[in-house]
Design goal:
This protein has 113 residues and is of the alpha+beta class. It has a single domain, classed as Roll (duf1285 like fold). It is built from two helices and eight strands.
C-alpha cells in the first residue's frame, strides 16, 4: 500500500507532529534497520540550512522530505534512513531550529515550551 503524502511540517506544533507519527502519517524510521551504506555528503548547519556536497539545498520540499527520514543513532550520530539504506549526515548543532517558543513561569522556575 503506498504511503500518504507527507504533510507540511513547518506549520505544525511538536504535539501535532507527534500525533502524526503516532497515526503513521510519517515514515516509520524507528522500525527501519538497513545496513550502513556510507556518507550522504549532506550537512545541517547550525542555522538550519541543509547542504549537499557543499551547496545549500534550495528546495524547501526536499528539505522537508529529508527531515522525515532523519534519525539520531544510539551513539549520538545522525543518519538518513530508508528501508534499504542508511547514510551518515553531519549535524553541526541540532537538526532543527526553534521557530517559536513561549516562557511559562518566572525566574528560576521559567520553562521554555
Amino acid at each position: 500500500m503506498p504511503m500518504e503524502p507527507i504533510p507540511d511540517l513547518s506549520s505544525l506544533s511538536l504535539a501535532d507532529i507527534a500525533r502524526l507519527a503516532q497515526d503513521h502519517k510519517l515514515p516509520p524510521i524507528e522500525r527501519w534497520n538497513p545496513t550502513h551504506c556510507g556518507d550522504s555528503e549532506m550537512r545541517i548547519a547550525r542555522d538550519g540550512t541543509w547542504f549537499h556536497q557543499g551547496s545549500p539545498i534550495g528546495r524547501p520540499a526536499m528539505v522537508r522530505l529529508f527531515s522525515t527520514i532523519l534519525r539520531r543513532e544510539a551513539d549520538g550520530s545522525y543518519v538518513l534512513v530508508t528501508p534499504v539504506e542508511k547514510l551518515d549526515i553531519a549535524v553541526e548543532d541540532a537538526p532543527f531550529v526553534a521557530v517559536e517558543m513561549k516562557v511559562e513561569r518566572d525566574g528560576r522556575d521559567a520553562v521554555l515550551v
